[in-house]
Write the structure tokens for this entry.
Amino acid sequence: MNLLFLTETDISPLQGGTERITCTLSEEFSRRGINCYLAYERPTELPAAVSFAEKLQYTRGCEEMQFAKFLSEKSIDIVISNLVDIHYKYRLLPVIRKLSLKDGAKIVACLHAMPGEELLGNSVRCSLYRIFHGDGLKENLKDIALRLFPKPLLKLLFKGRLRRRYRVLYDNADKVVLLSSRFYRDFASLGGLDIDGKFAAVGNALSFESFLPESGIASKSKEVMMLSRMDEKSKRISTALEIWKLVNDSGTHDDWRLTIVGGGRDLAYFKRLARKLDLRGVSFEGRQEDALPYYRRAAIFMMTSNYEGWGITLTEAQQMGAVPIAFLSYASLPEIIDDGKNGVVIPDGDKTEYVGKLIRLMDDRSWRESMAAEAIKSSRRFTREIICDKWVALFDDLLQGRA
């Protein structure tokens, strides 16, 4: 079998969750004798993945000719679109679809995000900070408007544009793969579609091949960890800092620390906010090539995201026995966290509840460690072998249809 992954940028596992899972899948597919290729337009400034048999760097305006030659020469069976930028989808998916109808390749369009997240704006405070620091006036004014207008009105105002956005995936693919079947309804509603056999759901595989031994739970540090892209709009790191301020104010947890790992456009904003809040026990570690030591050390993993498609850092944390606590801000979260058993789920936006449960996790070692043990066990549902089995079954189904 020959697979072609289609992206905007050359892949590095340090870029984010989508890129990390693409690397994981290509590595596992390659182990199984499946030939994996990558087509991208822009190079990456980060260390690029080497798990592809060959890469095609396509050129704007020449894509049809380049793709036609590559699909033919490599006898591509399936094209997996991991395109994120909507302008790339509009430009490239119809081209790939046209070529696939000639040579018999099947198209799998993946959405690694929560349907409808484009209607969620950024905080006004962060957007104004970005504007005052020369970071995209038009984009940030749009984010402020999205934040201030009610979501039902936005859906009505942008109904046509949203339908086109979701139909471009549906109309140009043989399968549309979402991260959870819980997203089917929203995708179909936004696209003006019925839920049918074209939809499929496959969650993300674990990043690490090893699991923390259960014996390692007892040696965890009094450390709360976050691993995230430093982006306020999606990750709501300011909320995490405000929660940590309330933990500081409790006056009884100064032996605990909050470690924040990751880089991104809003890192300076978050550091400024931490100083303004006069936080104790917080460190910003920046982007790290190897996050595993942080997971192994931390007892608790904190997520405050405004939205996610999956939340791969949650399963990474579970794999390493760091008990996750997260807001119920997206539909697929319950597929990862069973509240009170392998992590803690908080009603979205309820900071009081979040602080209370976080402090209980810190104080109740027995409860925390029992959940850590269960988290390690439950994370085995998402091993790369199990997730890749699901993908291979999907591929086989598509190729049997071709025959």
Notes: DSSP finds 16 helices and 13 strands in the chain.
